[in-house]
Each structure stands twice: as structure tokens, then as C-alpha cells.
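[stage:ingest] chain + small molecule (NAP)
[stage:ingest] validated
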Amino acid sequence: MSSLAVVVVGASGRMGTFACDLLAASTDFTVAARVERGDDLSVILRETHAPLGLDLTRAGLGEEHARTLLEHGVRPVVGTSGVDREATARLDALARERALGGIVVPNLSLGMCLLQEAAASAAAWFPDAEIVEKHRAGKVDSPSSTARMTAERIAEARGDHNGAEAGPAREFSVAGVPIHAVRLPGLEAHQEILLGSTGELLTFRHDVTSREAYGPGLLLALGHAASCDGVAYGLGAALR
Ligand SMILES: NC(=O)c1ccc[n+]([C@@H]2O[C@H](COP(=O)([O-])OP(=O)(O)OC[C@H]3O[C@@H](n4cnc5c(N)ncnc54)[C@H](OP(=O)(O)O)[C@@H]3O)[C@@H](O)[C@H]2O)c1
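[stage:predict] done
[stage:export] C-alpha cells:
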């Protein structure tokens, strides 16, 4: 099978550089173009005819870039933070109009995907949950898209039970799940999910210690986007 060409948007950033190296070393994908700030994405898409586009730019740009990709017949994989379920639903509608697919992946780590599955499963029995997410100083979005997604998964799993929502108001709360966001030098990407019950505490924890954590999920997401119908939310769609 010939390799699939990918336009990488945000190619000179930390994640973009990592993704380009990963694709260059892969037998399934190649880098069709490296798009940087100031480049005209539409012109590049018309010139390259690549089937896939990968966005790794800046929080706030992911939906716009995914729309541009879809409008040019290119299947998007959005790793950029800040594209929520509502934005994904809008992209899904556009993709289906054009018989295309793609995926929005707030977290490309397989470990985080498994952590969210485990926490959602436990939350059905331990509904009082809080999330502590820790990232490097300077991360633009807070709380992170990943923590928001974890909160939504927990809320879905516990159904009508409001858990910690009944407690005092918190600075951040998504779907009734309080989120504590820490931003400090020395951190990479860390999340703890604390599920409290009378006389016991169940804690799930995930730590990313290097960018390599995102490699397997990135390749899975691209493989999924290459043939799926509509735009999915979360790496779990690529594992099923
Ligand atoms: N899904 C995941 O698992 C995951 C993991 C890690 C990070 N992320 C997210 O991925 C994104 C990138 O992270 P990063 O650490 O690589 O950030 P970064 O190092 O700041 O890289 C972002 C790159 O995007 C470029 N850029 C900005 N606007 C652009 C535009 N309109 N067109 C093309 N390129 C543009 C930036 O160029 P300039 O420097 O010139 O502005 C920069 O090279 C962030 O949203 C981050 O939160 C997601």
C-alpha cells in the first residue's frame, strides 16, 4: 500500500516538529507540506492534493483550520487544544455534507485515553470526583481540553447524580466536575482524577514525561481519519 500524504499545519512548533519526524520515519504516511504561520493554507492545499491534514497550532485556531481542510476535500486530524464537542459537531456536519471524515483529539496519548475510560467506569460507583491537571507554565488554555473531556466522561458515567456539584462553588467546573489547573515550570502534562467515597479515596493518575507519548495515538488518529465517516471526538474512536 502506498503511504498517505499529510499536510502538517504548525509544522515548526514543538508538536509539529515531532509529528513531521514521526511521519518521515513511518511507512504509512509522508509529509506533503509543512505549513507555518503566515503561509496561505488554502493555496498549499490546492497545490498538494493531500488526503489528510494535521493541525498542531495554537488554541483557538483548530476549528478554523479544520474547516479550511474540509472545504478543500482534506480529512482533518486536530490535535490543537480548544476544539470542544460543540465545535466538533459543527465540523462533523460539514464533513458529512462532503462525504469526508476526520477526528479531533484533545489528547493523543493512549495512556490518557485508557485513564479516561477507567475513570468513567469507576465514576458510576464513585460519583464524587475532582480533577487536578498540571501543565507547563505558559500553556494557553486553562483548564486543558483533556481535563474538560475527562469531566464530561465522568458526568456522562454518573448520570443524574451530581456528585461534587452539591459542594461549594469552584473556580472551574465542567459538567459539574471541579477542575484544579496548575501551571508551573518543570511540569509537562499530568492529570489526577480523585474519586471520593466514605472511608476511601480512589485515585487515577497519568503523567506524560516526553512527547514520544503522543506518537502511537497520532498514527492511530491519522489512520482512523483516512477512512471514517464524519468527525469523531477523542482518541477512543480510533481504538474501537
Ligand atoms: N492533542 C495532544 O495530545 C496535544 C499534545 C501536546 C500539545 N497539544 C496542543 O497542540 C498545539 C501545539 O502545541 P506545541 O507545543 O507544538 O505549540 P508550539 O510549539 O507553540 O507550536 C505551535 C506552532 O503553530 C504555529 N502557528 C501559529 N499560528 C499558525 C497558523 N495560523 N498557521 C500555521 N502555523 C501556526 C506557531 O508558529 P509561531 O511560533 O510563529 O506562532 C508554532 O510553530 C497546542 O494547542 C497544544 O496545546 C496537543
